[in-house]
Design goal:
By secondary structure, the chain is mainly β. Helices cover 0% and strands 47% of the residues.
Length: 124
């Protein structure tokens, strides 16, 4: 099982980034998927999630209207489009998956598989 996140980097406030996560070794199509992030000195927090059927959960309030999660089952990939980035969006972003769930969760403990994380740094 492998989840590989990429696409992070350094961006100015107001800019955009698109994170990608490539999956292998499990039934991606039947998996609930999520993105979480962890800022320095803080706990990991929910950002966005998408159900097995492609419907998204309500986003975290802090990213609502700015971030969009999507999935491509044909490519075994999940994406996080991040627009209007703010300094507070800085952190390590993780993709997560659980092939046992139809409905995605905002709780990190509900995900069985995790990517290694990709760093997003937003300069003010």
């Amino acid at each position: 099982v492998q989840l590989q996140a990429s696409g992070g980097g350094l961006v100015q406030a107001g800019g955009s980034l698109k994170l990608s996560c490539t999956a292998s070794g499990f039934n991606f199509r039947n998996s609930a998927l999520g993105w979480f992030r962890q800022a320095p000195g803080k706990e990991r927090e929910f950002v966005a999630a998408i159900h097995r059927n492609g419907v998204t959960r309500p986003y975290a309030d802090s990213v609502k209207g700015r971030f969009t999660i999507s999935r491509d089952n044909a490519k075994n990939m999940v994406y996080l489009q991040m627009n209007s980035l703010k300094y507070d969006d800085t952190g390590v972003y993780y993709c997560a998956a659980d092939p046992q769930k139809i409905v995605s969760s905002l709780t990190s403990d509900d995900y069985a598989y995790w990517g290694q994380g990709t760093q997003v740094t937003v300069s003010s």
